[in-house]
Specification:
The complex is a heterodimer. Chain A is an alpha/beta fold. Chain A folds into three domains: 193 residues, Pyruvate-ferredoxin oxidoreductase, PFOR, domain III (Pyruvate-ferredoxin Oxidoreductase, domain 3, 3-Layer(aba) Sandwich), CATH 3.40.920.10; 183 residues, Rossmann fold (3-Layer(aba) Sandwich); 124 residues, Rossmann fold. Chain A is built from 20 helices and 23 strands. In chain A, strand 19, helix 16 and strand 20 form a beta-alpha-beta unit. Chain A starts with 5 loop residues before the first strand and ends with a helix. By secondary structure, chain B is an alpha/beta fold. Chain B contains twelve helices and 13 strands. Chain B has an eight-stranded mixed beta sheet with strand order 2-1-3-4-8-7-13-9, sandwiched between helices. In chain B, strands 10-12-11 form a three-stranded antiparallel beta sheet. In chain B, strands 5-6 form a two-stranded antiparallel ribbon. The relative contact order of chain B is 0.12. The chains are: A alpha/beta, B alpha/beta. At the A-B interface, strand 9, helix 7, strand 11, helix 9 and helix 10 of A face strand 1, strand 2, helix 3, helix 5 and helix 10 of B. Strand 17 of chain A pairs parallel with strand 2 of chain B, so a sheet runs across the interface.
């Protein structure tokens, strides 16, 4: 039988049961490969459940640096009897299947085209440990030890990671290392080590980090000066505020008094969460909330108010598969239209689309600047894939010369020196952005009434049609101004001149770039543009103008970004070819290549899918 | 509905401790119906803030949607105001208060805004013990949409539409008491002598202060068969007693009858006196307040006055342990950990 052979280029999948402590063991595996200098990309595929259901952890190892989801499994570590029948089918021919051989593998499941690696994990841990919970936990560590032998990983790295992980709980170090050794020894004794697939030390990591996007967003909020966070728990956004709290406790406690330079409110629902943000921002603090699609739906009314009343508002949307509860633990980019036009009436909102943890950090910090300067909601469009998985990323950077720019806010002195009447909605600078005052600034000047109902330039209530139109048109002037403030798209020109283009955004970046390299080798050349923000600026218009056929890759059913481009850039729809992957799994390079080669004729998203299937 | 208000004020208008006259606390002219109870409440807020000598711009007025929520325009014109979203005033007030703990927060809501669409937010603002005055201008109906029954309307009460309300009313005071509110009072818009000291005490209280004010809707719910009209409320009112608010350092001159008086000192040193009509009511005992409300209800009476007060409570800022300086005034010096700390974080992620 043929064996898959590869150095530093393969996919390992761990099939576990959730709630059994497998996550930290599997994380140890990914981290040790990273420590060997090789780019790695772990992805959790988990159920909406706390204990007892199947969960997978898919690790792509790739020393070329391609870290989008690849698809296919070269080595399956099948620990979960519930899913074993399905798991064994996922292994590519010539691949490897590591399973718990305490009970013999069901004859009906056996495959002759893959390499079976039976290790009696339950037996070993039963023999070595008496406590029931320990038996379960160490079983996970034992298979990591076995993998280190099978894949030729450096054992010392694993040992060091154990030491780091249990710093402060030193008595757990020895039993963990013992468990690693048990697995290692068993594999050495019973199999030809290493397998055809193996790890070889490289120097490709440099100063990169492994970080979850949600954590980077939280840290960006710390650095960006957010002091008020309000939230309601919802997968996959929950870790944003949890991480914010973790870092705030470390970095935001006043050393003298022990008091907090932050306030976090777990609100009664998402409506309240964004209400707190609007109230805090109105009163001059930098504030944010994090949620997912269903939460954004609930926040719609407040988003309209914040747009119309011009209150800076930062909202982080960690997208998941919808509609309704959809698949709450699977990824998607399906809130694009919801967020862009959230609320009733004529509204549109600034969106930011991060693609890496570094960009999460930067866009999160920048969102507070943008919101303050534009006096409007800014929505960061993260997704589950980036938010809840560790991504290989350039390190985070901060310029210590940075001063917060709070935008057009009048101080007590400004008001004191002001000769003319203050008007909250007077467009003094002709950029559509007017001057705010914080409550309590000046005894007699600058007070105004904020409301969702129409008002004149002096914030006085009016139902005059002229005043209403005047205000709504000024908001469009501000929208034009915003185009100069938001991050520009990232371009990746083809190696050969072409009139074909491809557009993608957010987490599609990794797979799209890999697909473009492979397509280019096959003679298919595409100029690429990664959208990083909405409103679309002139660069986006130019790209659309300069290409005859443009694929738009996105992780939703209806081609939402494509719709937004058609609508906002007044582009002929048939120019934009929709490539929509929406099965809840991160899109792969293979999928993009197949669809560029095969599905390019369809213009409407659903047709594109059907044609490919046919 | 007075569209003209004379600008002239007597040159010798009394001034408060800060040198402001009552006029400095007034707002725009009300556009509510003539005789609306809400206007009397606005006048009481103006009087209370004047007497307390609060700097007129150091107040933030926040409301939801409805007739009641319009009223912040009609008082304290030198303060910022925020007319937000229906039923969501408590969350906006929470955020505003967290941003700057140094202002006085006055939230104005109605019975629809609080007891129906905003019930969730109301209850959770109580739980958080947000330091604010929460005024409910309670008229038992939806005025701005022309008189539908609200959730505080009594069973059988008949408004202008002529059909009796069929559903149980929600009593916001007993609810707030159950939820742990630290200051609970009920009043009547027509009883300024009672309302003004209650508002002063509520503003001085460091925590969540609810005043549920019966405030008749003259247009849609002032019929003989309505239990929220002027006539019914006047005829069926009972009071816990007479409340006096004595600011810090002022001598207490009143004579009182032992056993029927209760004195509560607030965190800032000011004192509240209740000259009780009911000796069974103990201002520090939630249960006695709930029982007193129920006893009156059985007699078809509306119990008004101060019902409960916990002067030693911790407000949201104290619970969260936030710094004394308002969060909104902190800059990058304090808030941004800098590149060195970031490099250490990077290192921990390798």
């Amino acid at each position: 039988m043929q064996k898959i052979t590869s150095v530093n280029d393969f996919v390992v999948c761990f099939a576990n049961t959730n709630g059994t402590g497998s996550a930290s063991a599997n994380n140890l595996f990914a981290k040790s490969i990273f420590r060997m200098g090789i780019p790695v990309s772990p992805k959790n595929v988990f159920p909406s459940n706390i204990q007892g259901l199947p969960t997978w952890y898919e690790v792509r190892v790739n020393d070329k640096g391609y870290l989008g989801r690849r698809g296919g499994v070269d080595l399956m570590v099948a620990i979960n009897p519930q899913s074993i029948a399905q798991d064994i089918k996922l292994v590519s021919p010539g691949g490897y299947f590591l399973y718990d051989s305490t009970k013999p593998l069901d004859a009906g499941l056996r495959r002759d085209d893959i390499n079976l690696l039976g290790i009696p994990l339950t037996d070993i841990s039963r023999r070595e440990y008496t406590d029931q919970r320990q038996r379960q936990l160490f079983k996970n560590v034992i298979y990591i030890g076995a993998l280190s032998a099978l894949l030729d990983m450096e054992f010392d790295i694993l040992k060091n990671l154990i030491h780091e992980q249990f710093k402060g709980k030193e008595k757990l170090i020895a039993p963990n290392i013992h468990a690693l050794e048990l697995g290692y020894q068993y594999a050495r004794k019973n199999f030809d080590c290493p397998l055809g697939i193996r790890i070889e030390r490289r120097a490709m990591v440099n100063n990169h980090i492994l970080m979850e996007g949600n954590e980077a967003l939280a840290l960006g909020a710390i650095y960006g000066g957010a002091t008020v966070a309000a939230w309601y728990p919802i997968t996959p956004s929950t870790s944003v505020v949890e991480q914010f709290e973790k870092y705030a406790k470390r970095l935001r406690v006043d050393p003298g008094s022990g008091k907090c330079n932050y306030a976090i409110v777990q609100a009664e629902d998402e409506l309240a969460a964004i209400g707190v943000v609007v109230g805090a921002s109105w009163n001059g603090a930098r504030a944010f909330t994090a949620t997912s699609g269903p939460g954004v739906s609930l926040m719609n009314e407040f988003l309209g108010l914040a747009y119309f009343a011009e209150v800076p508002t930062v909202l982080i949307d960690v997208q998941r598969s919808g509609p309704s509860t959809g698949m709450p633990t699977r990824t998607q980019q399906s809130d694009v239209l919801l967020a862009a036009y959230a609320s009733h009436g004529d509204t549109k909102h600034v969106l930011l689309f991060p693609a890496t943890p570094k960009e999460c950090f930067e866009m999160s910090a920048a969102s507070f600047e943008l919101a303050d300067q534009l006096q409007t909601p800014v929505i960061i469009m993260n997704d589950l894939d980036l938010g809840m998985n560790e991504h290989f990323s350039e390190p985070l950077e901060w310029d210590d010369a940075t001063c917060y720019n709070r935008g057009k806010v009048l101080s007590e002195t400004d008001l004191e020196d002001m000769k003319e009447r203050y008007g909250r909605y007077l467009d003094v600078d002709n950029d559509g952005i007017c001057y705010r005052t914080y409550p309590g600034t000046h005894p007699t000047k600058g007070a105004f009434f904020t409301r969702g109902t129409s008002r004149d330039r002096y914030a006085v209530y009016t139902e005059s049609s002229d005043a209403y139109v005047d205000n709504m048109e000024r908001l469009l002037v501000k929208w034009e101004t915003a185009k100069g403030y938001v991050p520009k798209p990232e371009f990746r020109p083809a190696v050969k001149a072409t009139t074909d283009g491809i557009i993608y955004f957010g987490t599609t970046k990794a797979s799209a770039e890999e697909a473009l390299d492979i397509l280019s080798e096959q003679g298919v050349h595409l100029d690429a543009m990664r959208i990083r923000s909405f409103p679309f600026n002139a660069d986006v218009d130019a790209f659309l103008e300069n290409h005859d056929r443009i694929y738009v890759v996105e992780q939703n059913r209806d081609g939402q970004l494509r719709t937004l481009l058609i609508n906002e850039c007044e582009i002929a729809p048939d120019k934009l070819k929709a490539l929509c992957c929406f099965d809840g799994m991160p899109v792969t390079a293979r999928w993009i290549i197949d669809h560029v080669l095969g599905g390019g004729k369809a213009t409407r998203p659903v047709l594109a899918i059907r044609e490919v299937k046919a | 509905m007075t569209y003209m208000r004379p600008e002239f004020r007597h040159p010798d208008l009394p001034v408060n401790d800060l040198g402001y006259t009552r006029k400095d606390y007034e707002g725009a002219i009300s556009t509510l119906c003539a005789g609306c109870g809400h206007d009397s409440i606005s006048a009481a807020v103006i009087q209370a803030c004047f007497e307390l000598a609060i700097e007129p711009h150091k107040v933030a007025k926040i409301s939801g949607i409805g007739c009641s929520s319009k009223t912040p325009t009609y008082f304290l014109g030198k303060s910022h105001g925020f007319n937000s979203v229906h039923g969501r005033m408590p969350s906006v007030a929470t955020g505003a208060n967290l941003a700057n703990r140094d202002l006085t927060y006055i939230g104005v809501s109605g019975d629809g805004d609080t007891a129906s669409i905003g019930m969730g937010q109301f209850t959770h603002a109580v739980r958080r013990n947000l330091n604010m005055l929460y005024l409910v201008e309670n008229n038992g109906c939806y005025g701005l949409t022309k008189g539908q029954d609200s959730a505080t309307s009594d069973i059988g009460s008949i408004g202008k539409k002529g059909t009796p309300n069929l559903f149980e009313p929600i009593d916001l005071c007993t609810l707030a008491l159950e939820l742990g509110a630290t200051f609970v009072a009920r009043s009547f818009s027509g009883d300024k002598d009672q309302l003004v000291p209650l508002i002063k005490a509520a503003i001085s209280h460091c925590g969540f202060a609810l005043i549920d004010v019966m405030s008749p809707c003259v247009t849609f719910n002032n019929n003989p068969n309505s239990t929220k009209g002027y006539e019914f409320v006047r005829d069926h009112i009972a009071a816990t007693g007479k409340t006096d608010f004595i600011p810090v350092r002022k001598e207490i001159m009143a004579e009182y009858n032992p056993g029927f008086t209760q004195e509560v000192t607030l965190h800032d040193g000011s004192v509240i006196h209740l000259y009780k009509n009911d000796s069974d009511l103990d201002l520090h005992d939630r249960l006695s307040a709930i029982q007193a409300i129920h006893r009156c209800k059985e007699k078809n009476e509306i119990l008004t006055g101060l019902l409960y007060l916990d002067p030693d409570c911790e407000d949201l800022h104290q619970i969260l342990g936030t710094v004394e300086k308002p969060l909104r005034d902190q800059d990058e010096e304090v808030l941004c950990p800098g590149s060195k700390a970031l490099e250490a974080i990077n290192e921990s992620l390798r």
